[in-house]
Amino acid sequence: MSQLPDPAAHRKPDHPIHPLFIQRWSPRAMSGEAISEADLMSLFEAARWAPSTYNEQEWRFFYARRGTPHFDAFMDLLLPANRVWCAGAGVLVVVASQTVFTRNGNPNPVHTFDTGAAFENLALQGASMGLVVHGMAGFDWAKAPKTLRLPANHAVQAMIAIGRPGDPNTLPPELRERETPTGRKPVREFVFEGGYPA
Ligand SMILES: Cc1cc2nc3c(=O)[nH]c(=O)nc-3n(C[C@H](O)[C@H](O)[C@H](O)COP(=O)(O)O)c2cc1C
User: Fold this and answer.
1) Is 47 part of any domain?
2) Full strand arrangement of the beta sheet holding 91-98
3) CA pair distance 148, 97, nearest whole angstrom
4) What is the total count of domains within the chain?
5) Pocket of ligand 1 (CB under 6 A)
6) Does residue 122 belong to any structural domain of this protein?
7) What was the pLDDT predicted at 1?
8) Best of 113, 131, 134 to mutate for ligand 1, by most ligand atoms within 8 A of CB?
């Protein structure tokens, strides 16, 4: 059973928002249970409905389920610091994007932006289902395209660990201490009317 903290006890928004935004966080403790095909497809379905330039839908998700050779190959991509806690994941995902428009082959300047939006849809859906969805940049960026057999007009964006919440006591001490929902800067530190002050 999960003993993860409740984000609502640690996070207080300064302005009214939907509770799901607070509920989503990035735990590392996962139980090692499988994620059903149905649950996995619900996560990708949420990603599917993200907005994108010209409705290009240029995000690409490559997944590996626990207990398959793909999972071992995706684990191999991770840096050791992430591999430790990803041992409890049910699914590992590599997120990539097509960098050019399908209709004319021109560079798409917002493929990263659109793909980030799709990731956040997936993460929020996961939070609503009580799943752990944890983004990762700590992996072998040079090796990932080879593992996935990506063509040149694709770019790797991130990896994701997905799992059922686990017991934080199974984490190494330094990670166990960090297994608490984080806070945020005040809105006025990153929002500006008209530009930076003159
Ligand atoms: C693109 C991306 C890359 C990340 N890379 C890692 C990572 O390699 N290892 C890790 O433990 N956490 C990683 N994180 C998790 C962040 O540290 C976390 O999202 C951030 O501290 C905010 O906390 P929260 O997601 O719990 O709200 C990553 C998150 C994102 C979105």
Assistant:
1) yes
2) 59-65, 91-98, 154-163, 132-136
3) 12
4) 1
5) 25-26, 82, 135-138, 158, 181-182
6) yes
7) 47
8) 134
